[in-house]
Amino acid sequence: MTVAIQTQIIRVNGVVQGVGFRPFVWHLAQELQLTGWVGNDASGVVIHVQGTPDHLDKLRQRLRTEAPPLARVDAIHAEVIDAGPFVGFSISDSQTGVANTMIGPDVSVCDDCVQELFSEGDRRYCYPFITCTHCGPRFTVTRHLPYDRPQTSMSAFLLCPQCATEYASPPDRRFHAQTTCCPACGPRLTLSNMQGEPMEGDCIAQTVKLLQAGAIIAIKGLGGFHLACNARDAGAVARLRRAKNREAKPFAVMVANVQSLHAFASVSTTERELLESQERPVVLLNTLATTGIEPHFPGVADGLSTVGAMLPVTPIHYLLWHEAAGRPPGMQWLRAAQDMVLVMTSANPGGEPLVRVRSEALVRLANIADYLLDHDRDIVARCDDSVVQANGTHWHFIRRSRGYAPNAIALPRGGPSVLAFGSHLKNTVCVTRGAEAFLSPHIGSLDNAETCRFQDETVQRMCDLLAVQPVAVAHDLHPDDYSTRAAIVFAQEHGLRAVGVQHHHAHIAAVCAEHGFQGPVLGLALDGVGWGIDGQAWGGELLLVMNGVHSQRFGHLAPLALPGGDKAAREPWRMAASALFALGRKDEIATRLAQPGAEALVAMLERDLQCPRTSSMGRIFDAAAALLGISSCMQYEAQAPVLLAQAAMKGIAKSGWPSHQGSGWQIDNHHVLHLLPVLEGLLDSSDVPLAAARFHATVVAALAQWVMLASEVSGVRTVALGGGCFLNTLLSSKLRLTLEASGLQVLAPSRISPGDGSIALGQAWVAQQILEAGACV
After folding, report:
1. What would the mean pLDDT of 770-777 be, rounded to a whole number?
2. 578-610 burial code (b ≥16 CB/10 A, e <16)
3. What 3-state DSSP class applies to 204?
4. 3-state secondary structure (DSSP) of residue 46
5. Taking a C-beta distance cutoff of 8 angstroms, is the pair 358, 197 a contact?
6. Residue 9: which pLDDT band, with cuts at 50, 70 and 90?
């Protein structure tokens, strides 16, 4: 009996280039006795394949269920065609054209490559650029799509005969791995001083000696340079702080393995999974209650009960610990705790963008670093470290960047392409293409010319990589923000429609976009500041959002004065003074707060001079921190709320989650939530941790009642939580549990940050729906 042979063209869309997908298809074809060829094209992966219908069905099933670890299959389309007989199965060269795919993010070196890295007989033994199909750089080395070596910064390195054989051999792990290289043909390390003069000897060995001697070294990573020093050397850490003008903001540390963390931090199962994941983010960990972090690493995160930690990302990082351990044979050393701990912080002086090239590093880091550990593989695109925080079995982004961006976020439906310029703080940009939204890696706060130029560069890169010509540009409403001005200029230059989206509407829209939710939703947006439609500073908003497009300010926090304007956001004592004034206790301001200029500030409040109003929840937390004597002036963003939450955790650890005393708040007939009674309840508290815990419990109870009343009035049973205040895990977790217990559906960020890093996604989603609906802004 003759078995029917069928020919199909199968197209696979998603993250399927640069992740070993073509070799994977080749192996499946051998197993299933199929003939034909597979290649990359502008849409993803295309397979021309011939075989029995049963085997073709199995191929399509296994393409989805057994895809390589770095792949993400979004869609598989098959079409039966007429064709002559194929002979064998091959991998073809990529086709050029308009791209309709996307490159995956950079990931850490895989276990197989680490095993080779420390195998003395391997030809890549201790080679600092070892990589394969399943690991290493992607986004940061890619100039154009499709993802092939000539389109990357690896094009500068001609494959040697041995690497070329591996690259062309289907059974090999480096089959069509675009970053394949070895000591004979690939990139090389160099160590130099900051005058560019090379240092003699082994680069890795010299680097470890210099770090142990107290040096600060700029080390080239995947998406840019890190500044590294010995975390146990208080003098080196203090010198790095002075050089970076980073007075108190905590540093992250890098350790060899999870075992090395146990001496100073607790690590949950979720946190371990995050630390060891291929994305290798910085994970915010709780330090041990018995010692904290200061005795181990003075100056790294003084006064905090948390520390940001990460594991090695690149082979260079692994080699540093191998050298510090005395270059032991095999892998056993890597499974034991290692003594060396390094501060590993982004090399970006003064809040500027990450340094990515040697010439830039020698100039911009000249007064910070002592030496430069560099290499000759170009970084095409900057990409900073991602930062995450776990909360039980859940976790959320503090910053979504390397390892995760620019992975697509699936939208509930397709629509016109929109370019969104994001917010002023923690800026990212977003480009939509069909039913996908691509958030860029972290850009930063647009406070200086360099970061503004970086945003311009990122906008162009994202549009080019995605081959998108947007039909509209979305932006914030704040008229003075660079992101707003840049968006309007871009729209004018390209003849596009500019769509303004209110800041807190964008927060809620981002959460809805992530969850694919399109129905009416109550949006609780809590943050530090966002430009309101009335030109005032908003930040504690209860919105009713209909169909994503229309947003109504259903309620808000009762406004407080901002004495001195923006100064009040940096000096919490000003917000405490504002609260005392509003409570009719102005005579207590000077004595309670004991700050220079307190009397002058009272006069400002009395005359209502330089005292704009704000409904910000962030400023309420600032006021609470100052009233409890926890923080009067902030040395970095959100320091006061962080310390307040830390105090509350101590109170909860001692006495449990407190019940709120009385009502402690008021909700008026206009759905305005008054929290002054909560702040007044903090006065004369003798037990600061307990008072901080009660403050959190009362705020949670107040917000929950506020939302539930709004739900009863509006009939809407779904609430979305957005805004930077939800980075506070006490607030976010307790509020979510309370609302869900009341029967509401709660949407919270998980694949995006609650903060301003996701504003661009919300802007894009709103603008896309406005364009589809033909609605007026």
Report:
1. 70
2. bbbbbeeeeeebeebbebeebeebbebbeeeee
3. helix
4. strand
5. no
6. very high
Q: Identify the band that residue 392 occupies on the pLDDT scale cut at 50, 70 and 90.
A: confident
Distance CA 553, CA 559 (A): 14
- Domain 6-91 matches domain 189-388 at the CATH topology level: no
Q: Per the structure block, which two tokens stand in for 578?
A: 């504002």
Give domain limits for the chain: 6-91, 189-388, 397-516+755-773, 521-747
Asked if 341 and 231 touch (Cβ cutoff 8 Å), the reply is: yes
* Architecture, CATH, for domain 189-388: Alpha-Beta Complex (3.90)
Which range has the worst mean pLDDT, 94-98, 176-180, 238-242, 562-566? 94-98
pTM of the model: 0.93
* E-assigned strand segments in 134-279: 189-193, 217-220, 225-230, 252-254
Is residue 63 pLDDT above 50, yes or no? yes
Residues, the chain: 777
Helix axes 572-582, 617-627, angle to 10 degrees: 90
Q: How far apart are CA 365 and CA 236, in angstroms?
A: 16
Asked if residues 427 and 481 have their Cβ atoms less than 8 Å apart, the reply is no
> Please, what's the b/e burial string for 692-704 (b: 16 or more CB within 10 A of its CB; e: otherwise)?
bbbbbbbbbbbbb
Residue with tokens 């099933």: 61
The residue behind tokens 């880091």 is: 365
CATH T-level fold of 6-91: Alpha-Beta Plaits (3.30.70)
Asked if CATH classification 3.30.420.360 holds for the domain at 397-516+755-773, the reply, yes or no, is: yes
DSSP-derived 3-state class of residue 630 = coil
Torsion of CA 227, 229, 231, 233, to 10 degrees: -140
Mean pLDDT over the full length of the chain = 94
- Contact between 598 and 590 under an 8 Å Cβ cutoff? The reply is yes
Convert 372-398 to b/e letters by CB count within 10 Å (16 or more is b).
bbbbebbbbbbbbbbbbbbeeeebbbb
pLDDT tops 60 at residue 398: yes
Cα-flanking dihedrals φ and ψ of residue 11, to 5°? Answer: -110, 135
CATH topology of domain 521-747: Nucleotidyltransferase; domain 5 (3.30.420)
Q: What is residue 262's three-state secondary structure?
A: coil
